[in-house]
TrEMBL record:
InterPro entries: AlphaKG_dependent_hydroxylases, TauD-like_sf, TauD/TfdA-like. Keywords: Antibiotic biosynthesis, Dioxygenase, Iron, Oxidoreductase. Its cofactor is Fe(2+). It comes from Actinomycetospora termitidis. This is TauD/TfdA family dioxygenase. It holds the Pfam family TauD. Residues 31-313 form the TauD/TfdA-like domain. One of its GO terms (molecular function) is dioxygenase activity. It comes from the Bacteria. Signal peptide: none annotated.
Length: 332
């Protein structure tokens, strides 16, 4: 990353539409990382204002080109993913997309919002645009919160939501992959520090449970938003045969979301949440070289079904401490 801007940062003029994220069209610079560093403050302010911005014209072609741009926008080192749900490779701090069947919709969610320190900024770069579909839709957490049924919001806001996971070698990331270590003592220390209940299973697996806030106040704007993964990590997104397999084989599901007292989140509530998300999503078809910046505490993202090759890289930055005990206490 350059040590100082090479030219003054000009105000950014974005194109706005009701059904799409803000778009900033630029002429491809000689050095995209230098451009990103020069315009970082103005661009970050624009992302805070609009929730998400597509930068079109940077010409990002691969991970080697994306990584310095991401670090320039992050103003330092990128975050290392922890408690991941699926193993994915990383190149210089930049991750491949989360494995997900191309024909299935990936529900709206706030990345790693079950952490006490989730990323505040998500960055996505499209190096290969899909032939059809595959957009990364976004939605305002504040708008979703305002549109959800009051009774549903009230309970989750007062009590929070619980994520339960059962780590196995059959699906998703193993516990060693998710926590970045095969040292059980290190995993236990991490879980204890993060307020995660854990239990080792006789076959070598691990089960965890963690309580997190469902409604979060944005640290800059002060707006309250529906910031969680209650629907995305619900057992109801799994096919029935997959759910039954894990119950029969492991007496546990790979993941599920519950109320604070451990009672299941009803299938109809998950459907309602996803219906509200659908009413508020904005989308723009990917073009090769695009950069999408998402304020992870104000804006959710997902992935639409697609056909043909699709390569989208991701980078995480600006960790934000979410004081879950404080958030839950405020609304008790």
């Amino acid at each position: 990353m350059p040590s100082a801007p090479t030219r003054p940062s000009a105000p950014l003029e974005v194109r706005l539409a009701d059904d799409a994220p803000a778009v900033l069209a630029v002429e491809e610079p000689d050095d995209p990382a230098d451009w990103a560093f020069t315009h970082r403050e103005a661009l970050r302010a624009t992302v805070t204002e609009h929730g998400a911005v597509v930068v079109r014209g940077l010409g990002i072609a691969d991970a080697a080109g994306f990584a310095p741009v991401a670090r320039a926008l992050a103003g330092g080192e990128l975050m290392t993913e922890v408690e991941a749900f699926a193993p994915r490779s990383a190149v210089d701090g930049v991750y491949t997309a989360t494995p997900w069947p191309a024909h299935e919709q990936m529900c709206q969610h706030h990345e790693l919002s079950y952490l006490r320190t989730p990323p505040g900024l998500m960055m996505f770069a499209c190096t290969v645009a899909p032939a059809d579909g595959g957009a990364t839709p976004v939605a305002s957490a504040a708008d979703v919160l305002a549109d959800l049924p009051a009774a549903l919001v009230d309970r989750f806001e007062r009590e929070g939501w619980r994520l339960e996971r059962s780590y196995t070698d059959e699906v998703g990331a193993s516990w060693a992959d998710a926590f970045g270590t095969a040292d059980r003592a290190a995993v236990e220390a991490y879980c204890t520090a993060q307020g995660i209940e854990f239990a080792w299973q006789s076959g070598g697996g691990l089960t965890t449970s963690q309580l997190r806030p469902a409604v979060v106040t944005h640290p800059v704007t002060g707006r309250r938003g529906w910031v969680n993964q209650i629907a995305f990590l619900s057992e109801w997104i799994l096919d029935e045969d997959v759910r039954e397999f894990f119950l029969d084989e492991y007496d546990a599901r790979p993941f599920t979301t519950r109320h604070a007292d451990g009672t299941p989140v009803a299938e109809e509530d998950v459907a309602t949440i996803n219906e509200v998300y659908a009413r508020h999503t904005r989308r723009l078809p990917w073009e090769g070289g695009d950069l999408l910046l998402v304020d992870n505490l104000s804006t959710s993202h997902g992935r639409e079904p697609f056909s043909g090759p699709r390569e989208v890289l991701a980078a995480l930055a600006e960790p934000v401490v979410v004081d879950d005990s404080h958030e839950l206490r405020r609304h008790s």
